[in-house]
Amino acid sequence: MAEHEKEEPREVETRVAVTADVLNQVQIARSFPRNVSKAMTRLMELATRDIETAESCFYTLKRKDKRTGEVKKIQGPAIRLAEMTGHCLGNLRWGGRAEGEEDRYVVCQGVAHELESNLFVSIEARRRITTRDGVRYGDDMVTTTTMAGIAIAMRNAMFKAIPSFIWKPAYEAAIDKAVGDASTLADRRQKMIGKFALMGVGVEKVLAFCEKPTLEEITLEDLQDLIGAFNSIREGEQTVDQVFGAQAAPIEPPKSQAETAAEKPEGSQAATEAPPPPGASLPGPGPAGPGQPVGAPLAAEASAPKKPNGTNGKSLRQTCWDLLCKTAKKQQKGAPALLQELTKKSSLSELNDQEVDVLTGKLKGL
């Protein structure tokens, strides 16, 4: 008891000192109030300074309603915009910390103290630190998840303490700057495909995320969602698997007749060579139809007369597709992604016979 009694006055002195420090900061802030108009102008300049900065100012999440099954889009200002807001406004105290760990979660706290009005906001964020199977993350991954949780809690606290009319114009301008217009769509769309490729996300998963059959059909709105999703992954809001895993497994390319026959047990050769039932489509390249995956054939194209310049009696396009599938398998990527890389096209049906012949030659050399 005596030891406890000795420590108590020291704790009281600490609280008194902290309170006096905060009151002093409030008084200084009120003596030198911010110019809100200048702060908003400065924030607009920072958020739209360049495309890369503008892209970092917002995030996008997609969440499925458990009751209705409807997928809803959530978009909001990111931690980078919160940092710029605090820098431009001044007269703020804000920060974050990890409060502790539970069995499956790490609990983080973010605080923001707007000194002129003496408004204090504290927000908690819980981040899961186990896999879906209940296995705890490794130490490095727990640290990464914790840092992401702190950033999220700080962001939420900042935008709770600061009225939206101050930061929202810069937020909307940053989105416009990042997405661009019709004249820049093709270039920025391709750059986002490249950024996701560095994360190990193939073209087919990006198309599934946007619910579009080809890259050319990705719109400005889709591009905005892709940029926001990229930021949410980079900031630790969600993982690559959470963004793309549920709705977009890698699309398996159609297998050649030789590969199909090799997988079947002996005695099934006759079944392999049997003609397809009426109305069925053969494996081969072509744009996706209703219910078909990207790269699936059109029935009309599959049933078209075969040309003599293929191999083993196959059409030239079928031969090219088989080579594309085998090469993609060697390179551990999807056939649609390799086709896009070699030809800038998303389907063999977009190539004429001469271009198909040239592509076949390229694939033989790989």
Count of separate structural domains: 3
> What is the share of helical residues?
40-55%
Strand order of the largest sheet: 3-4-5
* Unreliable runs: 246-261, 263-313
**Terminal residue distance:** 80 Å
The count of β-strands is 5
Average pLDDT for all residues: 79
**Class by SSE composition:** alpha+beta
Question: What about the largest sheet?
Answer: 3 strands, antiparallel
Strand content: 5-15%
C-alpha geometry: elongated
Oligomeric assembly: single chain
Tally of DSSP helical segments:
16
**Cα-atom Rg, whole angstroms?**
28 Å
Give the topology string: H per helix, E per strand.
Answer: HHHEEHEEEHHHHHHHHHHHH
Describe this structure in words.
This protein folds into three domains: 23-170, no CATH class; 182-233, no CATH class; 257-266 and 281-365, no CATH class. The strands form two sheets. The chain has a three-stranded antiparallel beta sheet with strand order 3-4-5. Strand 4 (105-114) and strand 5 form a beta hairpin. Helix 2 runs antiparallel to helix 4 (79-89) and helix 4 (79-89) packs across helix 5 (139-161). Helices cover 53% and strands 12% of the residues. It is elongated, with a radius of gyration of 28 Å. It has 16 helices and five strands.
